Records
---
Amino acid sequence: MAFVSSIKNIGLACPEQNGFHSIADHSSFSSKLLILRRSGWFPRKKCSSVVVKAAIAPEIDFSDPDWKKHFQEDFENRFNLPHLRDVFDIKPRPTTFSLHNGGSQILSNIDAPEDRKSGYVNDDDRALLKVIKYSSPTSAGAECIDPDCSWVEQWVHRAGPRKQIYFDPEKVKAGLVTCGGLCPGLNDVIRQIVFTLELYGVKRIVGIPFGYRGFFDQGLPEIPISRQVVQNINLAGGSLLGVSRGGANVCDIVDSIQTRGIDMLFILGGNGTHAGANAIHNECRKRKMKVSVVCVPKTIDNDILLMDKTFGFDTAVEEAQRAINSAYIEAHSAYHGIGLVKLMGRSSGFIAMHASLSSGQIDVCLIPEIPFNLDGPYGVLRHLEHLIQTKGSAVVCVAEGAGQDLLEKSNATDASGNVVLGDIGVYIQQRIKRHFKEIGVPSDVKYIDPTYMIRACRANASDAILCTVLGQNAVHGAFAGYSGITVGICNTHYVYLPIPEVIASPRTVDPNSRMWHRCLTSTGQPDFL
Ligand SMILES: Nc1ncnc2c1ncn2[C@@H]1O[C@H](COP(=O)(O)OP(=O)(O)OP(=O)(O)O)[C@@H](O)[C@H]1O
Ligand SMILES: O=P(O)(O)OC[C@H]1O[C@](O)(CO)[C@@H](O)[C@@H]1O
Ligand SMILES: [Mg+2]
């Protein structure tokens, strides 16, 4: 890839495959670069009409000794957090959130001794987004801005409770909604949001049932929630409030927010939900409504940009391992056994890659980001023959979005407009059976599809902690006066990010990353091309 000073717009099109991906102008500079760099692997064999467009504008002049300064200024502008102050002339008030009273009592900091006021996060606190200095563009996973891979500091806003808040807790009505598919940990986040709101002194908290649908479906009344209601909900999977896809009309939703008198809206969901939340935030601003819209990213797929991981991912990987272990035992115990496990991951193979790595029982891991052939001398089927000959059994893990170019397109979409994928698991199962029959070698194929089992379960310990911190920080962000933001963990630190920056494109496995290389080392699989 040639180094470019700035990319205005990139489009990748492959009608037979993933549809059209447009990386709009507001998307992050580095994610555009990343996508351009990956465009080399994007075209697949059956994709006849790949178009890779990149409109490059010479915005950064690397000969300018101050280019880094300009880059950083641009970065700072993009990651600046929208605040209610931008629109309203409002004065902050001392926080009612106490760091020292164990939560049972609300402490007004107006009268608190000075030492009790320490421990709050300052609005100017920042966390570093990129912590590796790459010495060369060919270093594994390198994300370089200039040809020398110079070190450029990229700071994002630190999450946490502020000393000053922009709402009177006594008057606040807070709403919570969970959208998209299920994800382990939704109840943990709901619980922590409610606990933290009550610690601030909020008395009116409601849940909007069944995702965005609950805003306009008259048959779905809002659900009053309190500490008592949510006390034990983390013990079960799912969402106390229910979830749904589709049906989001932003104007209707904002009408509903206005009618209900909601001042703070906490929205839990994936990339689609975040796009909706950003539109709700913008519409509230347009209507001059003093509403704080704060998201918590929810996706087992881990496909949200910039974050170490999203809650639910860890649990999904742990559950997926159980399926892999069963597939391994079945395959290992059968004569010429082949275990096949299909895992979720629409456009990102993180679950499949991590489950393969953690189980240590996978011989072949197939993910959407890496093209592969089933047939031919270097195809998956020939490799399985080799494994049967040498090991006597084999285990394959495939992500649901992998190998879609091998399947017929239905052009169907779900209620939210997401493409309905072909079933790659069933297809590979049939192809393996047919192949071994054709070559006259007996095989015993055992197919496991644990799809919903890996996301309908309770969060594990690590996710439960992540959910706790994210939920608490969502409330701190709303009281701090931010809106149109989401909370995340970056390099182990908790941060607030503007919504458009995290959904500019789906986060995907980098084929050049150390993690994918580790997965290949672990499975021992060749390139299937
Ligand atoms: N661009 C958009 N603008 C407004 N609303 C959207 C947009 N995309 C999706 N939505 C709405 O957001 C909600 C959730 O979207 P979606 O079903 O795609 O799940 P998601 O949030 O991406 O989560 P998951 O990870 O489970 O796919 C739906 O109600 C959908 O209508
Ligand atoms: O069957 P549903 O509810 O549409 O969910 C399936 C989708 O959910 C996801 O896990 C995202 O949450 C995708 O990987 C998968 O395609
Ligand atoms: Mg989605």
---
Amino acid sequence: MAAPSFLGWDFSTQQLKVIAIDEHLRVIYEDNVNFDKDLPEFKTQGGAHVHGDRLTVTSPVLMWVKALDMILEKMKSSGFNFSQVRALSGAGQQHGSVYWKKGSIQILKNASPKLPLHQALKACFAISDSPIWMDSSTASQCSALENAVGGAQRLANITGSRAYERFTGNQIAKIYNQNPEVYAQTELVPVGALQKRISLVSSFAASLFLGAYAPIDYSDGSGMNLLQIWDKSWSASCLDACAPELVEKLGNPVPSHSVLGSISPYYIQRYGFSPDCKIVAFTGDNPASLAGMRLEEGDIAISLGTSDTLFLWIREPTPALEGHILCNPVDSQTYMALLCFKNGSLMRERIRNECASGSWDEFSKALSSTVAGNNGNLGFYFDVMEITPEAVGVHRFNSDNQKVLNFPKEVEIRALIEGQFMAKRIHAEKLGYKVMPQTRILATGGASHNKKILQVLSDVFNAPVYTIDTANSACLGSAYRAIHGLVAETNVPLADVVKLAPEPRLAVTPTAGAEELYHPLLKRYAELEQKVIYNPTSSCL
Ligand SMILES: O=C(CO)[C@@H](O)[C@H](O)CF
């Protein structure tokens, strides 16, 4: 008797990925389809089309459907046993939107198992190229939405974020403003009938497996500037500010752990899935990554990449004009926060090249040869316009808070690393994050292989740092959520469901006295940050 398995899907920007795990959480299959390489007929770059205005960015919907056909055929050819899949879930790139044309629901429901799905659905989309998260063409719609609800902070208090160009509500508003006839084409049926016609990429992907329109989940719905994150219902003032009859087109949002139903007959007949295979609500890629990293309350995940991204588990968030508060995908009573710091590894590499002859070993030696706290020297390093906070340029201050033009090389290196991590703690705490006794920092990305850098991170947060591999965290998190969905109704936390998964590896613990040392420095850093924040009207500092 073959062992039961669970599938996790990730409809990300550049590729479609799938992971199968067994009941012991061991990976038994993984595969991917790269959109540019494997589907060249769609002529994408990085999975997207960047339009001539350099602001509009879209991706072809049928490319996503065809990628699913391809990956399922690859699995079938490899002899994958679909009949043992007990449940599946998935993730999609956040904020993107799919516009189903009138009548698509019948075509989706009755797709012939003799044909690939992309052939059945080829005329089902009112917009063939969906707007995605890389789009920044909706500045006017963002201003209109913030004005309609009483300002940026008010919108953040309602939806968890101020208006962002990539957020779905503003994208829908642009389509309604610029293509009202297309907007009218998207299907409209009574609310409550679980029918709807505008999907996120995540709920669109779930619809393909369900053979019906899948609802938007609370967590990915938090990335639309439309959902009230406190009572998890659509905000009437936000919907009305974006487009008419929007609630009929979105349907009712659902908890992210919801079992939506059984897999569509199309997959049973074409691939041999079991009729009992359950579809668990899909969610956004970042919420799915939180599940894949198995974050728990008090944890903070830091991805040290080109830009540095923080995932926080927060019980009582305070939405701000920076960062994003989302409904937690694995615990409907709590929240997750996303914070992005644009000046990440490229900034670290520039200082390494200039102050450590391009060598990470020399960079690490400089960190070892300088004292924690850097004798009160502080620095802000933003080669490109930073978004957290909005600031640009390099600004150095000595222990008397006097601006200085430069630091000795090893002081510069420590000022960069301490500054980057103090900023992360300050802005995380502004969003309501609290370092707790059980706090763990889960570090990933290139710089997480450098223990000297991690030691500074541990000291600034006064918390142990673990390293994890997040290469497939969204996919793996989706497979974990597929298992969790089957038991979530019994209030079993995800942590219990995935306790057999490989543990993160402890890398460093805080140096004794770190909290006492960095507490006053964090206060100084926050005060000085106010001086460097970008003010287009003031002379450069
Ligand atoms: O826009 C983002 C999050 O707000 C990106 O991380 C997308 O989710 C990437 F697909």
